[in-house]
Amino acid sequence: MKLVLPEVFVVFALLSTNVTLHAQPVDKLISEGDLFYAKLQAGEALKYYLPAEKLDPANVRLLVHISREYRHLMSDATASADKVRLGGAAVNYAARAAALAPKDAEAQLAVAISYGKLQPFQGNRQRYDAVHIIKDAADKAIELDPSNDLAWHVLGRWYKGLAEVDGLHRALAQAAFGSLPAATYEEAATCFEKAIQLNPNRLMHYIELGGVYAEMGRKDEARRLVSKGLSMQNTEKDDAETKREGQQLLSTLR
After folding, report:
1. What's the predicted TM-score (pTM) here?
2. Which of 25, 44, 107, 179: disulfide with 97, CB 3.0–4.6 Å?
3. What is the pLDDT of residues 19-41, one digit of tens each?
């Protein structure tokens, strides 16, 4: 009997916690989740957000936040299968938000970011389709909110990613699925420059723009921008990884 009691108590505790959370008003659950959202503690935030979503499934802001938390869990996951599962959840919640509020810039942006995060782990057909979905969602986000620096950043990454595709891979993609959109590093640079203008406090804008300038042969400017980004304090989930990429880039520019 002594061996059974601890397990019983654990199960009872979990069930009690779940019942307690569902008994709370939606606003209270969301407020509690927001505290962990601000601390970049995705798993803890979802403990409150998911019960809230069951009670208020049409809450667009909540769906957008849940989508971001699944992206953060995806970043922390090590197995590809887990990344695909978590990325798929992020896409689904973002798509629900955008369907409910097609004129909400943050919902459109959530779609673009979520598909962008999931794309590297998908098959060729899905990756090709995502190219068009990301561009459409990013364009809509900017149309709805031209001052959204993250939307400009996503669009910049879209142009940069396509500018990197060589002629052979473009031909292969066209033969299999259809032509890829044209894109240039100059277009990518314009987007990142706009992002910096709108919000000079995100280090990723500088490091990404530095990478584009490096591809354009503007190495002095690239070094300056990457160095500035590396000197800034981490404030967002992906900042540490962005800095690692910046360090690698900087080592090739010396």
Report:
1. 0.88
2. 107
3. 555 567 999 999 999 999 999 99
Q: Are 52 and 62 in contact (CB under 8 A)?
A: yes
Q: In this structure, what token pair is assigned to residue 122?
A: 């998908």
Runs of H (alpha helix) within 105-184 = 105-118, 124-144, 149-163, 167-176
**Distance separating alpha carbons of residues 249 and 226, to the nearest angstrom:** 8
pLDDT digits (tens, 9 = 90+) for 191-246: 999 999 999 999 999 999 999 999 999 999 999 999 999 999 999 999 999 999 99
d(CA 155, CA 140): 11
Closest CA relative to residue 72, chosen from 46, 103, 51: 46
The predicted-structure confidence for 122-154, as pLDDT tens digits, reads as follows 999 999 999 999 999 999 999 999 999 999 999
Question: Which of helix, strand or coil describes residue 201?
Answer: coil
Cβ neighbour number for residue 175 with a 10 Å cutoff: 9
Structure tokens at 95: 């798509």
Question: Residue 64, Cβ neighbours under 10 Å: how many?
Answer: 23
Residue 85, amino acid: R
Residue 173 near residue 126 (C-beta atoms within 8 A): no
User: What is the CB neighbour count within 10 angstroms for residue 121?
Assistant: 17
Using CA atoms, how far apart are residues 27 and 127, in angstroms rounded to an integer? Answer: 37
Separation of alpha carbons 67 and 95, rounded Å: 9
